[in-house]
Each structure stands twice: as structure tokens, then as C-alpha cells.
Design brief:
Number of strands: 0
Oligomer: single chain
Structural class: mainly alpha
């Protein structure tokens, strides 16, 4: 399929879009599966790392298993989580391949910065959650148990689900500035509209935080705070991205790649 010089010249039918999406999702599934297989050998070490914040917050309250196959299932879950983390550059590359035909030629050549930046944002969000948010959240939960004089006995599956869901959620929301860039380049939003929608955005951020975090106010606030900061950064990103592109930048160079595999 030949690439065109201008995004508006690129035409695909609905079925073509669905076929391309299916292709990219297939590659993503393969990448996560391969990463999960490679990570399975180290799932015990990763599991210990994921349980470390709990051990520091919940003193003398060991995690318990409630099913004979639970340990094996948890190792698979941890391996798939690791597979998604280590294959994230491949996942973001597949996202790029899906959206790249609708970009200007100059923007199509930004594949390496896109993959590196998106991977860094995703990993940074997950690590920020692990080192800063989850310890505070778990300490808060333990304090609530103490306030009613109850010794907690927590299922290991519940704890692992909390860790994985929250870390992936933070990794995803840290992609907001990058998502804003592409929406601004596509003309879907600009910095003025983002400023006008700020109050509505704050409400939406708290709704998103409530959906991606456990049902407690503290974790929601801890996610909503960085999201509001990221929204402010995204306003600046939208301003930069909404600047007009010169004609020389809209056309591909003679050496540009002209096919999509």
C-alpha cells in the first residue's frame, strides 16, 4: 500500500481499518505471550517484589492463599504482567503503525522517539505508582484495620490484583501528554479548548481515577493529583502541536519509506 503525502489523502474503508486493527492486536498478543513465557522463569522473584510493599505496610499480617491452584494461576498472571511491561516498546510500535498513515510525512519519521517516549512514560507511571502511591495506599488501609482493632488476613490474589491494576492504570494515564500531541496534530483539540474545559476535565479525571483505583478516597486523590499536573503539561503540548506545519514538512523526502508492511 503506497503512502500518501498528506493525511487527508489517505483513505481506508471501515473493513480495512478493522483488518489493520486486528493485525496490530494479533502482534500485540504475540509480543505479550512471548514476554510472558520468558518472564515465567522469574515470576517468583517478581511476585516477591510485588508483595514487598504489602510486607512493609501490613506488619505481622501474612498473605494467604485460598485455593490449591492459586499459586500457579498467580505465577501466570505475574508472568503476563511482566510480559506486557517488557514488550511495551513492541506494543507502542504497533500502535504507531496503526495511526502513522494518518500523519504527515515528517511525523511518520518520529517512530523511534514515539516508541522511546511512550515506553518511558508508561514505565515511569508504573514505577511512580509502585514506589510512591502504593506504599501510601497500603499504609492507609492498614491504619484503617488498626482503627477498628482487627488483624487483617488478606488473600494474595486480591493484593496482586490491586498491585497490577493500579500500576497499569498509572502507566496508562501517564501517556496523556503524548495522546494530546496526536489529537492536537489531528485538529481534534487545541490548547484553548483544553483551557476552557479545565473544570470539566478535573471532574473527568476524578471519575477516571475512581475507575482505575480501588474504592478508597486516598488512592483516587493520589492518582487524580498527577493527572491534573499531566493535564496542565498537556495544554502546553497541545499549544506546541497545534502550530501550523510548513509545506516542506508536509511532503515526504525522496528517501522516505513508501510502503506499509
Amino acid at each position: 500500500m503506497n503512502r500518501t503525502d498528506h493525511p487527508s489523502d489517505f483513505k481506508m474503508g471501515l473493513l480495512d481499518h478493522l483488518k489493520e486493527l486486528r493485525k496490530r492486536l494479533f502482534f500485540c498478543a504475540i509480543a505479550i505471550s512471548l514476554g510472558g513465557i520468558l518472564s515465567y522463569c522469574y515470576s517468583s522473584q517478581v511476585f516477591s517484589a510485588l508483595c514487598d510493599p504489602y510486607a512493609k505496610a501490613f506488619h505481622n499480617s501474612p498473605l494467604i492463599g485460598t485455593g490449591p491452584a492459586e499459586a500457579w494461576v498467580l505465577k501466570i498472571k505475574v508472568a503476563l504482567f511482566c510480559g506486557a511491561m517488557i514488550s511495551s516498546p513492541v506494543l507502542f510500535y504497533q500502535i504507531w503503525r496503526f495511526v502513522a498513515p494518518g500523519l504527515y510525512a515528517r511525523e511518520r519519521r518520529l517512530v523511534v522517539p514515539f516508541v522511546l517516549l511512550s515506553t518511558a512514560l508508561f514505565s515511569g507511571g508504573a514505577m511512580f505508582c509502585y514506589h510512591e502511591i502504593l506504599p501510601l495506599t497500603l499504609a492507609f488501609f492498614y491504619g484503617e484495620f488498626q482503627s477498628i482493632n482487627i488483624t487483617p488476613t488478606v488473600r494474595v490474589g486480591d493484593h496482586l490484583s490491586l498491585m497490577i491494576t493500579t500500576m497499569l492504570g498509572f502507566g496508562a494515564v501517564f501517556e496523556l501528554p503524548l495522546l494530546t500531541y496526536f489529537l492536537a496534530r489531528a485538529g481534534i483539540l487545541d490548547h484553548r479548548s483544553m483551557l476552557n474545559w479545565f473544570r470539566h476535565a478535573v471532574v473527568a479525571i476524578f471519575i477516571i481515577a475512581a475507575a482505575l483505583t480501588p474504592p478508597d478516597v486516598l488512592t483516587q486523590l493520589l492518582m487524580a493529583g498527577p493527572l491534573i499536573v499531566l493535564y496542565g503539561i498537556s495544554i502546553g503540548v497541545a499549544y506546541i502541536a497545534s502550530q501550523p506545519v510548513s509545506e516542506s514538512e508536509q511532503t515526504p523526502s525522496a528517501n522516505a519509506v513508501t510502503t506499509i508492511s
